[in-house]
Amino acid sequence: MALAAGSTTRLWTLVAREFWRKTRRRLRAGPIYRWRYSGRTPERVLIAPPDLRLADPQIALEIYYGRYPLSGHMVETGGKSPFQIDVPNRGWQKTLHGFRWLRHMRAAGTELAAANARALVSDWIALHGNQISGVAWEPGTTAKRVIAWLQHSSVVLQGAEFPFYRAFLKSLAMQIRYLRSMAREMPDGKDRLRARVALAFAALSLPAPASALRSATRNLAEELDHQILPDGGHISRNPMTVLELLADLLPLRQTYANQAEAPPPALINAIDRMLPALRFFRHQDGSLARFNGMGATIHDRIATILRHDDTVGAPLLHAPHSGYERLSMGGVTVIADTGTPPPVDVSNAAHAGCLAFELSSGRQHFVVNAGIDTYGAAEFRPLARATAAHSTATVNDTSSARFSHSLRVSDLLGSPLIGGPQHVPCKRIDQKGVHGFVARHDGYAARFGFLHERELKLTENGNVLTGRDRFLRPGGGAIRNNGRDFVTVRFHIHPDIGLLQDEQDRLMLTASQGDTWVFTCAEVAPEIEESIYFAGLGGPRRSRQIVLAFKASEIAEVNWQLTRTNIAGYPENN
Protein backbone atom coordinates (compact mmCIF):
# COMPACT_ATOMS: atom_id res chain seq x y z
CA MET A 1 0.00 0.00 0.00
CA ALA A 2 1.33 3.45 -0.86
CA LEU A 3 2.36 5.61 2.02
CA ALA A 4 0.28 8.63 2.91
CA ALA A 5 1.79 11.90 1.70
CA GLY A 6 2.48 13.08 5.26
CA SER A 7 4.25 9.86 6.18
CA THR A 8 6.33 9.98 3.01
CA THR A 9 7.42 13.56 3.63
CA ARG A 10 8.31 12.84 7.25
CA LEU A 11 10.25 9.72 6.30
CA TRP A 12 12.34 11.38 3.60
CA THR A 13 13.02 14.33 5.88
CA LEU A 14 14.49 11.85 8.35
CA VAL A 15 16.47 10.14 5.59
CA ALA A 16 17.95 13.47 4.49
CA ARG A 17 18.76 14.40 8.09
CA GLU A 18 20.45 11.07 8.76
CA PHE A 19 22.39 11.27 5.49
CA TRP A 20 23.68 14.69 6.54
CA ARG A 21 24.56 13.34 10.00
CA LYS A 22 26.54 10.48 8.52
CA THR A 23 28.32 12.83 6.14
CA ARG A 24 29.33 15.10 9.02
CA ARG A 25 30.32 12.03 11.04
CA ARG A 26 32.65 10.87 8.24
CA LEU A 27 34.17 14.34 8.07
CA ARG A 28 34.73 14.38 11.82
CA ALA A 29 36.43 10.98 11.58
CA GLY A 30 38.68 12.10 8.74
CA PRO A 31 42.21 13.49 8.87
CA ILE A 32 41.01 17.12 8.81
CA TYR A 33 39.23 16.73 12.14
CA ARG A 34 41.33 14.01 13.71
CA TRP A 35 43.81 16.44 15.21
CA ARG A 36 41.01 17.70 17.44
CA TYR A 37 40.94 14.38 19.28
CA SER A 38 44.58 14.63 20.35
CA GLY A 39 45.53 16.48 23.46
CA ARG A 40 46.69 16.11 27.01
CA THR A 41 46.72 12.57 28.39
CA PRO A 42 45.23 12.15 31.89
CA GLU A 43 47.70 11.02 34.51
CA ARG A 44 45.45 8.46 36.17
CA VAL A 45 41.92 7.17 36.67
CA LEU A 46 40.53 8.77 39.82
CA ILE A 47 37.71 6.30 40.39
CA ALA A 48 36.29 3.17 38.73
CA PRO A 49 32.50 3.54 38.65
CA PRO A 50 30.43 0.51 39.71
CA ASP A 51 28.82 -1.84 37.17
CA LEU A 52 25.41 -3.33 37.96
CA ARG A 53 25.32 -5.76 35.04
CA LEU A 54 25.52 -9.45 35.82
CA ALA A 55 28.94 -11.06 35.50
CA ASP A 56 29.95 -14.70 35.01
CA PRO A 57 33.54 -15.89 35.66
CA GLN A 58 32.91 -18.85 33.32
CA ILE A 59 32.60 -16.45 30.38
CA ALA A 60 36.00 -15.00 31.30
CA LEU A 61 37.39 -18.53 30.99
CA GLU A 62 35.68 -19.05 27.63
CA ILE A 63 37.21 -15.82 26.35
CA TYR A 64 40.64 -16.89 27.57
CA TYR A 65 40.34 -20.01 25.41
CA GLY A 66 39.30 -17.97 22.37
CA ARG A 67 35.54 -18.56 22.54
CA TYR A 68 33.45 -15.41 22.56
CA PRO A 69 29.76 -15.92 23.48
CA LEU A 70 28.53 -12.43 22.64
CA SER A 71 25.14 -11.15 21.51
CA GLY A 72 23.68 -14.67 21.44
CA HIS A 73 26.41 -16.05 19.14
CA MET A 74 29.51 -18.11 19.89
CA VAL A 75 32.59 -17.30 17.81
CA GLU A 76 35.86 -19.22 18.11
CA THR A 77 38.89 -17.19 17.09
CA GLY A 78 41.34 -20.06 16.62
CA GLY A 79 44.12 -18.34 18.52
CA LYS A 80 43.74 -14.99 16.73
CA SER A 81 42.73 -11.74 18.32
CA PRO A 82 38.93 -11.29 17.99
CA PHE A 83 39.66 -7.83 16.56
CA GLN A 84 41.48 -9.40 13.60
CA ILE A 85 38.77 -11.73 12.35
CA ASP A 86 35.85 -10.90 10.09
CA VAL A 87 32.56 -11.92 11.73
CA PRO A 88 29.48 -11.14 9.60
CA ASN A 89 27.16 -10.82 12.61
CA ARG A 90 26.84 -7.10 13.29
CA GLY A 91 25.39 -7.56 16.79
CA TRP A 92 28.39 -9.68 17.78
CA GLN A 93 30.79 -7.05 16.43
CA LYS A 94 29.10 -4.21 18.30
CA THR A 95 29.16 -6.19 21.55
CA LEU A 96 32.82 -7.07 21.07
CA HIS A 97 33.84 -3.45 20.50
CA GLY A 98 31.59 -2.28 23.35
CA PHE A 99 33.80 -4.13 25.90
CA ARG A 100 31.03 -4.74 28.44
CA TRP A 101 32.37 -8.30 28.66
CA LEU A 102 35.25 -6.93 30.75
CA ARG A 103 32.95 -7.36 33.74
CA HIS A 104 33.40 -11.13 33.48
CA MET A 105 37.17 -10.69 33.92
CA ARG A 106 36.51 -8.59 36.99
CA ALA A 107 34.23 -11.28 38.38
CA ALA A 108 36.92 -13.94 37.79
CA GLY A 109 39.24 -11.96 40.06
CA THR A 110 42.42 -13.71 38.91
CA GLU A 111 45.72 -12.39 37.60
CA LEU A 112 45.18 -14.49 34.48
CA ALA A 113 41.84 -12.79 33.78
CA ALA A 114 43.36 -9.35 34.36
CA ALA A 115 46.27 -10.14 32.02
CA ASN A 116 43.84 -11.34 29.35
CA ALA A 117 41.75 -8.19 29.72
CA ARG A 118 44.88 -6.08 29.37
CA ALA A 119 46.00 -8.03 26.29
CA LEU A 120 42.63 -7.60 24.57
CA VAL A 121 42.51 -3.88 25.29
CA SER A 122 46.06 -3.60 23.96
CA ASP A 123 44.99 -5.44 20.78
CA TRP A 124 42.10 -3.03 20.28
CA ILE A 125 44.33 0.02 20.73
CA ALA A 126 46.85 -1.35 18.24
CA LEU A 127 44.30 -2.37 15.60
CA HIS A 128 41.52 0.21 15.97
CA GLY A 129 42.77 2.95 18.27
CA ASN A 130 43.88 5.28 15.47
CA GLN A 131 41.53 4.14 12.72
CA ILE A 132 38.31 6.03 13.33
CA SER A 133 35.95 4.01 11.16
CA GLY A 134 33.61 1.03 11.10
CA VAL A 135 31.56 -0.54 13.86
CA ALA A 136 34.28 0.07 16.44
CA TRP A 137 33.86 3.83 16.20
CA GLU A 138 30.11 4.13 15.88
CA PRO A 139 29.20 6.69 18.55
CA GLY A 140 26.83 4.33 20.38
CA THR A 141 29.48 1.62 20.54
CA THR A 142 32.12 4.15 21.58
CA ALA A 143 29.91 5.32 24.45
CA LYS A 144 29.57 1.74 25.72
CA ARG A 145 33.33 1.21 25.46
CA VAL A 146 34.19 4.41 27.33
CA ILE A 147 31.87 3.43 30.18
CA ALA A 148 33.20 -0.15 30.26
CA TRP A 149 36.87 0.93 30.22
CA LEU A 150 36.23 3.32 33.11
CA GLN A 151 34.17 0.83 35.12
CA HIS A 152 36.74 -1.94 34.73
CA SER A 153 39.91 0.13 34.65
CA SER A 154 41.06 -1.45 37.92
CA VAL A 155 41.06 -4.88 36.22
CA VAL A 156 42.60 -3.70 32.96
CA LEU A 157 45.35 -1.75 34.73
CA GLN A 158 46.07 -4.42 37.37
CA GLY A 159 49.78 -5.18 37.11
CA ALA A 160 50.15 -2.99 34.01
CA GLU A 161 53.52 -1.55 33.09
CA PHE A 162 53.84 2.18 32.48
CA PRO A 163 53.78 2.08 28.62
CA PHE A 164 50.45 0.26 28.59
CA TYR A 165 49.07 2.44 31.39
CA ARG A 166 49.93 5.50 29.32
CA ALA A 167 48.56 4.04 26.07
CA PHE A 168 45.29 3.11 27.80
CA LEU A 169 44.74 6.62 29.16
CA LYS A 170 45.77 8.23 25.88
CA SER A 171 43.28 6.10 23.89
CA LEU A 172 40.55 6.68 26.46
CA ALA A 173 41.07 10.45 26.28
CA MET A 174 40.94 10.34 22.47
CA GLN A 175 37.67 8.39 22.52
CA ILE A 176 36.16 10.84 24.99
CA ARG A 177 37.06 13.83 22.80
CA TYR A 178 35.65 12.03 19.75
CA LEU A 179 32.43 11.20 21.60
CA ARG A 180 32.12 14.79 22.84
CA SER A 181 32.38 15.95 19.23
CA MET A 182 29.92 13.36 17.91
CA ALA A 183 27.24 13.46 20.62
CA ARG A 184 25.42 16.43 19.16
CA GLU A 185 25.36 14.72 15.74
CA MET A 186 23.77 11.52 17.01
CA PRO A 187 20.13 10.75 16.18
CA ASP A 188 17.53 10.92 18.91
CA GLY A 189 17.27 7.90 21.22
CA LYS A 190 19.04 5.87 23.86
CA ASP A 191 22.48 5.90 22.16
CA ARG A 192 22.60 9.69 22.37
CA LEU A 193 21.57 9.58 26.03
CA ARG A 194 24.22 6.92 26.72
CA ALA A 195 26.83 9.15 25.08
CA ARG A 196 25.92 11.90 27.53
CA VAL A 197 26.15 9.39 30.37
CA ALA A 198 29.61 8.29 29.18
CA LEU A 199 30.85 11.88 29.08
CA ALA A 200 29.56 12.49 32.61
CA PHE A 201 31.34 9.33 33.81
CA ALA A 202 34.54 10.57 32.14
CA ALA A 203 34.33 14.01 33.74
CA LEU A 204 33.93 12.37 37.17
CA SER A 205 36.45 9.54 36.76
CA LEU A 206 39.40 11.36 35.16
CA PRO A 207 41.22 14.56 36.14
CA ALA A 208 39.27 17.30 34.37
CA PRO A 209 38.57 21.00 34.88
CA ALA A 210 35.38 21.92 36.71
CA SER A 211 34.00 23.39 33.50
CA ALA A 212 34.11 19.95 31.83
CA LEU A 213 31.98 18.44 34.59
CA ARG A 214 29.54 21.35 34.49
CA SER A 215 29.15 20.99 30.72
CA ALA A 216 28.73 17.19 30.87
CA THR A 217 26.19 17.53 33.70
CA ARG A 218 24.20 20.19 31.87
CA ASN A 219 24.06 18.18 28.62
CA LEU A 220 23.09 15.04 30.51
CA ALA A 221 20.24 16.85 32.28
CA GLU A 222 18.89 18.22 29.00
CA GLU A 223 18.92 14.78 27.39
CA LEU A 224 17.22 13.14 30.39
CA ASP A 225 14.49 15.77 30.39
CA HIS A 226 13.93 15.14 26.69
CA GLN A 227 14.00 11.32 26.63
CA ILE A 228 12.54 10.22 29.98
CA LEU A 229 8.79 10.76 30.10
CA PRO A 230 6.94 12.13 33.16
CA ASP A 231 5.72 8.61 34.06
CA GLY A 232 9.25 7.17 33.81
CA GLY A 233 8.96 5.52 30.42
CA HIS A 234 11.29 6.19 27.50
CA ILE A 235 10.25 8.03 24.35
CA SER A 236 10.77 4.80 22.36
CA ARG A 237 8.04 3.09 24.49
CA ASN A 238 10.33 0.04 24.80
CA PRO A 239 10.32 -1.46 28.34
CA MET A 240 13.81 -2.91 27.76
CA THR A 241 15.22 0.57 27.18
CA VAL A 242 14.15 1.61 30.69
CA LEU A 243 16.08 -1.36 32.11
CA GLU A 244 19.18 -0.72 29.99
CA LEU A 245 19.35 2.97 30.85
CA LEU A 246 18.88 2.37 34.57
CA ALA A 247 21.88 0.03 34.48
CA ASP A 248 23.95 3.10 33.47
CA LEU A 249 22.15 5.85 35.39
CA LEU A 250 22.24 4.19 38.82
CA PRO A 251 26.06 3.75 38.78
CA LEU A 252 26.38 7.32 37.52
CA ARG A 253 24.37 8.62 40.47
CA GLN A 254 26.64 6.62 42.78
CA THR A 255 29.74 8.02 41.07
CA TYR A 256 28.58 11.59 41.64
CA ALA A 257 28.15 10.73 45.33
CA ASN A 258 31.53 8.97 45.56
CA GLN A 259 33.23 12.04 44.13
CA ALA A 260 31.34 14.36 46.52
CA GLU A 261 29.65 16.05 43.58
CA ALA A 262 25.98 16.96 43.51
CA PRO A 263 24.16 14.95 40.81
CA PRO A 264 21.87 17.05 38.64
CA PRO A 265 18.22 17.06 39.79
CA ALA A 266 17.26 15.73 36.36
CA LEU A 267 19.27 12.55 37.04
CA ILE A 268 17.72 12.02 40.46
CA ASN A 269 14.22 12.71 39.16
CA ALA A 270 14.65 10.46 36.12
CA ILE A 271 15.76 7.51 38.25
CA ASP A 272 12.93 8.12 40.70
CA ARG A 273 10.45 7.93 37.83
CA MET A 274 12.09 5.06 35.92
CA LEU A 275 12.25 2.56 38.80
CA PRO A 276 8.44 2.56 39.29
CA ALA A 277 8.05 2.43 35.49
CA LEU A 278 10.18 -0.71 35.36
CA ARG A 279 7.97 -2.29 38.02
CA PHE A 280 4.91 -1.20 36.03
CA PHE A 281 6.00 -3.39 33.08
CA ARG A 282 6.88 -6.35 35.30
CA HIS A 283 4.75 -9.48 35.60
CA GLN A 284 4.53 -11.54 38.78
CA ASP A 285 7.36 -13.85 37.67
CA GLY A 286 9.70 -10.88 37.18
CA SER A 287 9.66 -10.73 33.37
CA LEU A 288 8.80 -7.60 31.40
CA ALA A 289 5.76 -7.31 29.14
CA ARG A 290 6.55 -7.88 25.46
CA PHE A 291 5.79 -4.56 23.77
CA ASN A 292 7.66 -2.37 21.27
CA GLY A 293 10.97 -4.20 21.02
CA MET A 294 10.94 -6.23 24.23
CA GLY A 295 12.20 -9.80 23.96
CA ALA A 296 13.21 -12.38 26.54
CA THR A 297 13.79 -11.20 30.11
CA ILE A 298 16.82 -12.16 32.17
CA HIS A 299 15.18 -12.01 35.57
CA ASP A 300 18.30 -11.47 37.64
CA ARG A 301 19.07 -8.30 35.70
CA ILE A 302 15.78 -6.76 36.76
CA ALA A 303 16.16 -7.91 40.35
CA THR A 304 19.61 -6.30 40.52
CA ILE A 305 18.22 -2.97 39.32
CA LEU A 306 15.12 -3.04 41.51
CA ARG A 307 17.22 -3.45 44.64
CA HIS A 308 17.76 0.28 44.28
CA ASP A 309 14.01 1.02 44.35
CA ASP A 310 13.21 2.30 47.84
CA THR A 311 9.47 2.72 47.25
CA VAL A 312 8.65 -1.03 47.27
CA GLY A 313 4.96 -0.25 46.93
CA ALA A 314 2.37 -1.58 44.53
CA PRO A 315 3.21 -0.68 40.91
CA LEU A 316 1.35 2.18 39.29
CA LEU A 317 -1.73 1.22 37.25
CA HIS A 318 -1.68 4.09 34.76
CA ALA A 319 1.21 5.25 32.54
CA PRO A 320 -0.50 7.84 30.30
CA HIS A 321 2.66 9.42 28.87
CA SER A 322 4.15 6.06 27.90
CA GLY A 323 0.75 4.84 26.69
CA TYR A 324 0.14 1.73 28.82
CA GLU A 325 -2.43 0.49 31.33
CA ARG A 326 -2.10 -2.10 34.09
CA LEU A 327 -4.84 -4.09 35.84
CA SER A 328 -3.86 -6.05 38.92
CA MET A 329 -5.61 -7.95 41.69
CA GLY A 330 -5.66 -11.43 43.23
CA GLY A 331 -2.25 -12.37 41.82
CA VAL A 332 -3.40 -11.58 38.27
CA THR A 333 -1.70 -8.94 36.11
CA VAL A 334 -2.91 -7.48 32.82
CA ILE A 335 -0.71 -5.01 30.92
CA ALA A 336 -2.01 -3.30 27.79
CA ASP A 337 -0.67 -0.98 25.08
CA THR A 338 -2.95 2.06 24.83
CA GLY A 339 -0.59 4.56 23.19
CA THR A 340 0.20 6.08 19.85
CA PRO A 341 3.43 5.03 18.10
CA PRO A 342 6.66 6.66 19.29
CA PRO A 343 8.25 9.43 17.22
CA VAL A 344 9.48 8.13 13.87
CA ASP A 345 13.16 8.66 14.62
CA VAL A 346 13.00 6.40 17.72
CA SER A 347 10.58 3.84 16.24
CA ASN A 348 13.06 1.40 14.70
CA ALA A 349 12.01 -1.29 17.22
CA ALA A 350 8.39 -0.19 17.71
CA HIS A 351 5.51 -2.60 17.11
CA ALA A 352 2.06 -2.28 15.56
CA GLY A 353 0.44 -3.60 18.74
CA CYS A 354 -2.07 -0.95 19.73
CA LEU A 355 -4.66 -2.25 22.27
CA ALA A 356 -2.76 -5.55 22.67
CA PHE A 357 -2.57 -7.01 26.17
CA GLU A 358 -0.81 -9.68 28.21
CA LEU A 359 -2.25 -11.70 31.09
CA SER A 360 -0.24 -13.45 33.78
CA SER A 361 -1.67 -15.38 36.70
CA GLY A 362 0.65 -16.08 39.60
CA ARG A 363 4.06 -16.74 38.09
CA GLN A 364 2.68 -18.14 34.83
CA HIS A 365 1.98 -16.26 31.61
CA PHE A 366 -1.24 -17.17 29.81
CA VAL A 367 -1.98 -14.55 27.14
CA VAL A 368 1.14 -12.95 25.62
CA ASN A 369 2.47 -11.07 22.65
CA ALA A 370 5.01 -12.83 20.45
CA GLY A 371 7.84 -10.46 21.47
CA ILE A 372 11.11 -10.44 19.55
CA ASP A 373 14.01 -12.84 19.23
CA THR A 374 16.66 -10.41 20.46
CA TYR A 375 19.61 -12.21 18.88
CA GLY A 376 17.80 -13.99 16.06
CA ALA A 377 17.77 -13.47 12.32
CA ALA A 378 16.75 -9.98 11.20
CA GLU A 379 14.28 -11.32 8.63
CA PHE A 380 11.91 -12.43 11.43
CA ARG A 381 11.68 -8.97 12.97
CA PRO A 382 8.89 -7.72 10.64
CA LEU A 383 6.76 -10.74 11.64
CA ALA A 384 7.28 -10.05 15.34
CA ARG A 385 6.43 -6.36 14.92
CA ALA A 386 3.21 -6.94 12.95
CA THR A 387 -0.21 -6.56 14.58
CA ALA A 388 -0.92 -10.26 13.99
CA ALA A 389 1.88 -11.14 16.45
CA HIS A 390 0.01 -9.34 19.24
CA SER A 391 -3.05 -10.13 21.31
CA THR A 392 -5.33 -7.60 19.67
CA ALA A 393 -7.48 -7.20 16.55
CA THR A 394 -6.29 -7.07 12.95
CA VAL A 395 -8.44 -5.89 10.04
CA ASN A 396 -8.13 -7.57 6.63
CA ASP A 397 -4.84 -9.19 7.71
CA THR A 398 -3.28 -5.72 7.82
CA SER A 399 -1.23 -4.19 10.61
CA SER A 400 -2.58 -1.13 12.38
CA ALA A 401 0.71 0.65 11.68
CA ARG A 402 3.06 0.55 8.71
CA PHE A 403 6.81 0.02 8.52
CA SER A 404 9.32 1.18 5.97
CA HIS A 405 11.12 -1.70 4.26
CA SER A 406 12.80 0.39 1.56
CA LEU A 407 16.42 -0.62 1.04
CA ARG A 408 17.40 3.02 0.57
CA VAL A 409 15.76 3.90 3.90
CA SER A 410 16.99 0.85 5.83
CA ASP A 411 20.64 1.66 5.06
CA LEU A 412 20.21 4.89 7.02
CA LEU A 413 17.29 4.44 9.41
CA GLY A 414 16.65 0.71 9.71
CA SER A 415 12.92 -0.02 9.56
CA PRO A 416 11.04 2.80 11.28
CA LEU A 417 7.33 2.80 11.98
CA ILE A 418 5.94 5.43 9.64
CA GLY A 419 2.17 5.22 10.06
CA GLY A 420 -0.30 4.12 12.66
CA PRO A 421 -2.89 5.34 15.14
CA GLN A 422 -2.95 9.11 15.51
CA HIS A 423 -5.44 9.21 18.37
CA VAL A 424 -5.79 6.62 21.14
CA PRO A 425 -8.14 8.06 23.78
CA CYS A 426 -8.15 5.97 26.94
CA LYS A 427 -10.30 6.19 30.08
CA ARG A 428 -9.86 4.26 33.32
CA ILE A 429 -13.05 2.71 34.71
CA ASP A 430 -11.80 1.65 38.13
CA GLN A 431 -14.38 1.03 40.83
CA LYS A 432 -14.46 -0.91 44.07
CA GLY A 433 -13.41 -4.44 43.14
CA VAL A 434 -12.89 -3.46 39.49
CA HIS A 435 -9.78 -2.47 37.56
CA GLY A 436 -10.51 -1.53 33.98
CA PHE A 437 -10.17 0.81 31.04
CA VAL A 438 -11.72 1.54 27.68
CA ALA A 439 -9.62 2.75 24.75
CA ARG A 440 -9.95 3.07 21.00
CA HIS A 441 -7.57 3.66 18.11
CA ASP A 442 -7.92 4.97 14.57
CA GLY A 443 -5.12 2.94 12.96
CA TYR A 444 -7.58 1.40 10.48
CA ALA A 445 -9.77 4.46 9.91
CA ALA A 446 -7.99 5.88 6.87
CA ARG A 447 -7.76 2.56 5.03
CA PHE A 448 -10.93 0.73 6.05
CA GLY A 449 -13.21 3.36 7.53
CA PHE A 450 -13.68 2.19 11.09
CA LEU A 451 -12.23 2.28 14.60
CA HIS A 452 -11.29 -0.45 17.06
CA GLU A 453 -12.43 0.03 20.65
CA ARG A 454 -11.43 -2.34 23.46
CA GLU A 455 -12.70 -2.49 27.01
CA LEU A 456 -11.02 -4.68 29.63
CA LYS A 457 -12.25 -5.24 33.18
CA LEU A 458 -10.56 -7.35 35.86
CA THR A 459 -13.04 -8.29 38.61
CA GLU A 460 -13.87 -10.81 41.35
CA ASN A 461 -10.46 -10.58 42.99
CA GLY A 462 -8.75 -11.22 39.67
CA ASN A 463 -10.77 -14.30 38.80
CA VAL A 464 -12.55 -12.78 35.77
CA LEU A 465 -11.18 -10.75 32.89
CA THR A 466 -14.03 -9.42 30.75
CA GLY A 467 -13.29 -8.04 27.31
CA ARG A 468 -15.32 -6.20 24.74
CA ASP A 469 -14.06 -5.40 21.24
CA ARG A 470 -16.17 -2.98 19.20
CA PHE A 471 -15.76 -1.78 15.62
CA LEU A 472 -17.45 1.47 14.68
CA ARG A 473 -17.38 4.18 12.07
CA PRO A 474 -15.89 7.52 13.19
CA GLY A 475 -19.10 9.41 12.45
CA GLY A 476 -21.50 6.66 13.50
CA GLY A 477 -23.53 4.52 11.16
CA ALA A 478 -23.21 0.91 10.06
CA ILE A 479 -19.97 -0.61 8.75
CA ARG A 480 -20.28 -1.42 5.06
CA ASN A 481 -20.23 -4.99 3.82
CA ASN A 482 -17.69 -4.24 1.10
CA GLY A 483 -15.24 -7.11 1.46
CA ARG A 484 -12.89 -4.90 3.50
CA ASP A 485 -14.37 -5.49 6.93
CA PHE A 486 -12.88 -8.86 7.94
CA VAL A 487 -11.69 -8.82 11.57
CA THR A 488 -9.48 -11.28 13.42
CA VAL A 489 -9.12 -10.91 17.19
CA ARG A 490 -6.12 -12.91 18.43
CA PHE A 491 -5.09 -14.16 21.86
CA HIS A 492 -1.57 -15.60 21.70
CA ILE A 493 -1.05 -18.30 24.32
CA HIS A 494 2.29 -18.84 26.05
CA PRO A 495 4.02 -22.06 24.86
CA ASP A 496 3.99 -23.52 28.40
CA ILE A 497 0.19 -23.38 28.58
CA GLY A 498 -2.01 -26.32 27.61
CA LEU A 499 -4.97 -25.40 25.39
CA LEU A 500 -7.97 -27.75 25.06
CA GLN A 501 -11.51 -27.32 23.75
CA ASP A 502 -14.41 -29.03 25.53
CA GLU A 503 -17.76 -30.14 24.13
CA GLN A 504 -19.31 -26.76 24.99
CA ASP A 505 -16.78 -24.90 22.81
CA ARG A 506 -15.07 -23.56 25.89
CA LEU A 507 -11.31 -23.33 25.73
CA MET A 508 -9.33 -24.50 28.76
CA LEU A 509 -5.97 -22.83 29.38
CA THR A 510 -4.01 -24.91 31.85
CA ALA A 511 -0.59 -24.53 33.48
CA SER A 512 1.06 -27.70 34.78
CA GLN A 513 1.92 -26.14 38.13
CA GLY A 514 -0.42 -23.17 38.09
CA ASP A 515 -3.92 -21.87 37.49
CA THR A 516 -6.57 -22.87 34.97
CA TRP A 517 -8.47 -20.32 32.90
CA VAL A 518 -11.53 -20.78 30.67
CA PHE A 519 -12.06 -18.68 27.55
CA THR A 520 -15.58 -18.07 26.22
CA CYS A 521 -17.12 -15.74 23.64
CA ALA A 522 -20.83 -15.05 23.23
CA GLU A 523 -20.95 -14.00 19.57
CA VAL A 524 -18.24 -15.99 17.77
CA ALA A 525 -17.04 -19.57 18.21
CA PRO A 526 -13.33 -19.42 19.09
CA GLU A 527 -10.85 -21.34 16.97
CA ILE A 528 -7.36 -22.62 17.76
CA GLU A 529 -4.52 -21.90 15.34
CA GLU A 530 -0.76 -22.32 15.29
CA SER A 531 1.44 -19.43 16.37
CA ILE A 532 5.05 -18.66 17.23
CA TYR A 533 6.53 -17.17 20.38
CA PHE A 534 9.70 -15.26 19.49
CA ALA A 535 10.70 -14.14 22.99
CA GLY A 536 11.84 -17.46 24.47
CA LEU A 537 15.20 -17.48 26.26
CA GLY A 538 16.28 -20.28 23.94
CA GLY A 539 14.91 -18.62 20.82
CA PRO A 540 11.54 -18.91 19.02
CA ARG A 541 9.10 -21.62 20.13
CA ARG A 542 5.93 -23.06 18.63
CA SER A 543 2.78 -21.91 20.36
CA ARG A 544 -0.94 -21.55 19.72
CA GLN A 545 -3.46 -18.78 19.56
CA ILE A 546 -7.18 -18.34 20.14
CA VAL A 547 -8.82 -16.66 17.15
CA LEU A 548 -12.16 -14.91 16.78
CA ALA A 549 -12.82 -14.31 13.06
CA PHE A 550 -15.86 -12.41 11.74
CA LYS A 551 -17.06 -9.61 9.49
CA ALA A 552 -17.50 -6.27 11.25
CA SER A 553 -20.50 -5.48 9.03
CA GLU A 554 -22.29 -8.52 10.51
CA ILE A 555 -20.91 -8.52 14.08
CA ALA A 556 -19.82 -5.09 15.24
CA GLU A 557 -19.09 -6.15 18.82
CA VAL A 558 -17.73 -9.29 20.48
CA ASN A 559 -17.82 -9.97 24.19
CA TRP A 560 -15.37 -12.51 25.57
CA GLN A 561 -14.32 -13.63 28.99
CA LEU A 562 -11.39 -15.35 30.68
CA THR A 563 -12.43 -16.98 33.95
CA ARG A 564 -10.06 -18.52 36.48
CA THR A 565 -11.62 -21.81 37.59
CA ASN A 566 -8.60 -23.32 39.33
CA ILE A 567 -6.03 -21.57 41.46
CA ALA A 568 -2.71 -23.39 41.68
CA GLY A 569 -4.41 -26.69 40.97
CA TYR A 570 -7.18 -26.38 43.54
CA PRO A 571 -10.82 -25.89 42.43
CA GLU A 572 -12.41 -22.64 43.46
CA ASN A 573 -15.16 -22.74 46.07
CA ASN A 574 -18.27 -21.39 44.41
UniProtKB/TrEMBL annotation:
Pfam families named in the record: Hepar_II_III_C
Predominant localisation class: periplasm
Boundaries of every Heparinase II/III-like C-terminal domain copy: 313-561
KW Chloroplast (keyword) present: no
InterPro entries: Chondroitin_lyas, Hepar_II_III_C
Keywords tagged on the record: Lyase, Periplasm, Signal
Subcellular location: Periplasm
Regions annotated as coiled coil: none
Protein name, entry field: Heparinase II/III family protein
